[in-house]
Design goal:
Serine Threonine Protein Phosphatase 5, Tetratricopeptide repeat, 697 residues, flat, TTL1-4, alpha+beta, Thioredoxin_domain, Thioredoxin domain-containing protein, TPR repeat, 3-stranded mixed β-sheet, 54% helix, Glutaredoxin, 5-stranded mixed β-sheet
């Protein structure tokens, strides 16, 4: 039986040049670091493993273990001069029992390893351990440290349990930590040649000394130790992905390189480039700053950080890092940063003077000059639009901002910017009727800057407007229209151009028969928010009640273009058109709702339709394709009830085809207010409907 001995890590690693040469030659399969020593070959002594438990130490073994601490003659190497090392072992694996214990047996001689250092030598026995979990011979092996001899005790990636069993620590963190600790030695070892069979095949989670199996994936495909563990290789792979625009994959590879070498500024700078590609500018700033901390003279990192600060509108920081970047920066980039700085200064000045048109112009110039990721610029643009009562545009401008969190804004721009951005956001949300979100945003701004007067006023206004809307809605549902009207008016004292409150008050006034005042409220609401469809519909009905048919038809036509299938709007539009014709003294006895598709019977009828106010679509076709084209016309007429659809059969009305210059059949001609504005050849229904929407607006 092999003799088992315990030894401290210091003795293992300090056993002299001869022992290290032996490790490289027989264990790692690498050439000896001693170039003068003669290479010798020996037949390895096999070691077999069975599935029984390790036996407890017998008194004879304990006696032999104690004998290891005795000093040996100093002429040990002289007596053994010329001997070839015969202690190389053949490693094999077998399935273990559920406890993971293995028994080591020896078939021929004892495989004793002898060392001599300062007249003190020790006898070592190699232990080969196989984990019992999930054997899989197809996976590649990865060496975790610079040596692969493991002694009894908690060394490398093995830990010893209380009952003497050995358990492999298969956690990823343990492996990475070991690799990071001894990466330099490992890199030197991988540069030398290695026999293809220098590793034994183990199970998927097996551990032999501190050799562990890497999980499958890009770096577990048998590419070799250098490919999987060399951070430079990982960085180069990341660069390839970056050039291909695969930023997510590049970021993963850079992260792996950093985990192996945390002190390389290049890896941090490249990681920032991948983050920029993903639009994560705040994180990119942190990576560039870390790269500069590691290497303050790293000009590429300074240049990259300058470009990020330029986009964030931090021109002073941008100019500083441009100067530090050396030849990476040209004079044009410095001039652009200086121009942007002037526009941003004028933005601040215009806001202080409340020159909102000027502020709007300067924010547009700032964004077009390069500050496309500056949240403060977008907030100032939204504020200018709010003050100009262009609420829908203000909401769109605010949504274009980068959307940094309050913490990120504070870190990047200082403590005063985040409360301002949140305050403007609260006002924007309130203007479009998102009251709950407006209140939450205003309260967040107040928490960040409780002494800011503008922020506190915004919180007060949002609370008052939200409360007025809630109270007014409850009263309106209870048919208390006068009280509801008063409630909405109280809210408008804090925000006189709030489109939601104006529209709701218009509804109350229309219920009370105050149609003129209702039209005024709707007009005010549409002035700040043109897409407020409820206000437009209410104004159309109120104008109809006042006999203003032309104004009513205009609103109904805009609504029907937005919702062509809305039957209520379509019928209201038809009624308004009939009333307008009656007001003009025209004949309306043949007009019926849904009968906007007609067949031309004479030239006079054709001229009547195409010269009337509004839009008319005329189909010129042959009788033989009458049925197919009629279906196309019917489908279009249902979507656009305000448009007149006419069909002209050229066999019966050849003079009309000639006078209207018809050269291709079938074809559509679109007329508006007596003028021909569009011709569509063929039976393309989609193009026809698209053209009606375009020219009907």
């Amino acid at each position: 039986m092999a003799e088992i001995a315990t030894c401290s890590t210091e003795h293992e690693l300090g056993c002299g040049l001869g022992w290290r040469a032996f490790l490289r030659r027989h264990i790692l399969g690498l050439p000896s670091i001693d170039n003068n020593s003669e290479r010798q070959q020996s037949k390895p002594q096999p070691v077999f493993l069975d599935s029984s438990s390790l036996p407890k130490s017998s008194p004879q073994v304990e006696k032999k273990q104690k004998s290891l601490h005795r000093s040996r003659p100093s002429n040990f190497h002289q007596n053994n001069e010329g001997r070839r090392p015969s202690d190389a072992v053949r490693r094999s694996t077998s399935s273990s029992s559920s406890s993971g214990r293995m028994k080591v047996s020896q078939t021929n001689k004892s495989t004793n390893l002898r060392m001599d250092s300062n007249n003190d030598s020790r006898e070592l026995s190699r232990i080969v351990i196989t984990d019992h979990q999930n054997s899989n011979d197809t996976k590649a092996l990865v060496q975790a440290t610079s040596g692969n001899v493991m002694l009894l005790g908690p060394l490398g990636n093995l830990r010893q349990s209380g009952n003497g069993d050995f358990v492999g620590n298969n956690s990823r963190n343990a492996t990475v930590k070991s690799v990071d600790h001894r990466h330099k030695n490992l890199q030197e070892a991988t540069l030398s040649s290695r026999p293809r069979n220098c590793y034994s095949k183990l199970g998927i989670n097996s551990v032999m000394g501190n050799i562990v199996r890497q999980p499958g994936g890009e770096f577990g495909q048998g590419q070799g130790l250098k490919t999987s563990m060399d951070p430079e290789v990982l960085k180069n792979k990341g660069n390839e992905r970056y050039k291909q625009g695969r930023y997510e994959e590049a970021l993963v590879l850079y992260d792996r390189a950093i985990s192996l070498d945390t002190n390389k500024a290049t890896y941090r700078s490249n990681r920032s480039a991948a983050l920029i590609g993903l639009g994560r500018l705040a994180e990119a700033v942190a990576e560039c700053e870390e790269a500069i901390r590691l290497d303050h003279s790293y000009q590429r990192a300074h240049y990259r950080l300058a470009t990020i600060y330029f986009r964030l509108g931090e021109t002073e920081k941008s100019l500083y890092h441009y100067k530090q970047s050396g030849t990476n920066t040209d004079s044009k980039e410095v001039a652009q940063a200086q121009t942007l700085q002037k526009h941003l200064n004028m933005c601040t000045e215009a806001r202080k003077l409340k020159e909102w048109n000027r502020l709007l112009n300067e924010t547009e110039c700032s964004i077009s000059s390069g500050a496309d990721s500056d949240p403060q610029v977008y907030a100032m643009q939204a504020e200018a639009l709010l003050r100009l009562h262009r609420h829908q545009e203000a909401y769109t401008a605010y949504q274009k901002g980068p959307g940094f969190s309050a913490d990120l804004c504070t870190k990047l721009f200082g403590p005063t910017i985040a409360p301002y951005i949140l305050m403007i956001g609260a006002q924007v949300y309130m203007s479009v009727g998102r009251f709950e979100e407006a209140l939450a945003t205003a309260q967040q701004a107040a928490r960040l800057d409780p002494s800011n007067g503008e922020v506190n006023d915004t919180v007060k206004s949002v609370r008052a407007v939200a409360s007025a809307r809630l109270s007014g809605n409850s009263l309106f549902k209870a048919s208390k229209f006068t009280e509801a009207c008063i409630a909405y008016s109280e809210g408008l004292e804090y925000d006189s151009y709030n489109s939601i409150l104006l529209g709701n008050r218009a509804a109350c006034r229309s219920k009370l028969g105050q149609f003129e005042k209702a039209v005024e409220d709707c007009t005010a609401a549409l002035a700040v928010r043109p897409n407020h469809s409820k206000a437009r519909l209410r104004r159309a009905h109120c104008n109809a009640e006042l006999g203003r048919w032309e104004s009513s038809i205009q609103d109904f036509e805009m609504l029907i273009r937005e919702s062509p299938a809305d039957e209520e709007v379509g019928r209201a539009l038809f009624d308004a058109q009939v009333q307008l014709k009656k007001q003009r003294g025209e004949d309306t006895k043949d007009l019926k709702y849904g009968s906007n598709l007609a067949v031309v019977s004479c030239d006079q009828r054709f001229r009547h339709f195409v010269t009337s106010p509004g839009m008319s679509v005329v189909l010129f076709c042959n009788k033989e394709n009458d049925e197919q084209m009629l279906q196309t016309m019917e489908q279009a007429s249902k979507k656009f009830p305000s448009v007149n659809f006419l069909k002209v059969e050229v066999e019966d009305h050849s003079y009309l085809a000639k006078s209207e210059s018809v050269t291709f059949l079938p074809s559509f001609k679109i007329y508006k207010n007596g003028s021909r504005i569009k011709e569509i050849t063929g039976s393309n229904r989609e193009l026809l409907e698209k053209s009606i929407k375009l020219y009907g607006s």
